[in-house]
Amino acid sequence: MRLLLWMSVLLASVWAAHWGSDQLAVPLAKLRRQWGLSEAAGAAFVALATASPEIGTNAASALQGFSDIGLGNLLGSNIISIPAIVTVAYWASRSQRPQRSDV
């Protein structure tokens, strides 16, 4: 029964993340065009916005003298983020590259 509860929470979280990204895509694209930013600059803006909770956690823990929390937050997020970014970039580059055909 407990497993069913956590699976439901996971499913609801995935749905909420997908719904939230759909709701943010149009306003962020409009804001990017209003400010005259390129797509890369818009992506950097979104990346900064999504990293702000980690930046706040690290800054607050450093100011209070708990450097272990900041280090754990930094390492923990990067252990997942870096391989995920590299994998997605690889998949995206494979789909964009024209396939060579042997003659």
Report on this model:
The protein has 103 residues and is mostly helical. The chain has a domain at 37-96. It is built from three helices and no strands. α2 packs antiparallel against α3. The longest helix is centred in the first third of the chain and has 34 residues, at 2-35.
Described by strand count, sense and barrel closure, the largest sheet is: none
Helix content: over 70%
Number of helices: 3
Order of helices and strands: HHH
| Structural Rg | 19 Å
Poorly predicted regions are none
Structural class based on helices, strands and sheet pairing: mainly alpha
Q: How much strand?
A: under 5%
Summarize the structure.
The chain is mostly helical and 103 residues long. It has helices at residues 2-35, 39-63, 67-96.
Write the layout of secondary structure elements.
Layout: H1 2-35, H2 39-63, H3 67-96
List keywords for this structure.
103 residues, single chain, extended, mainly alpha
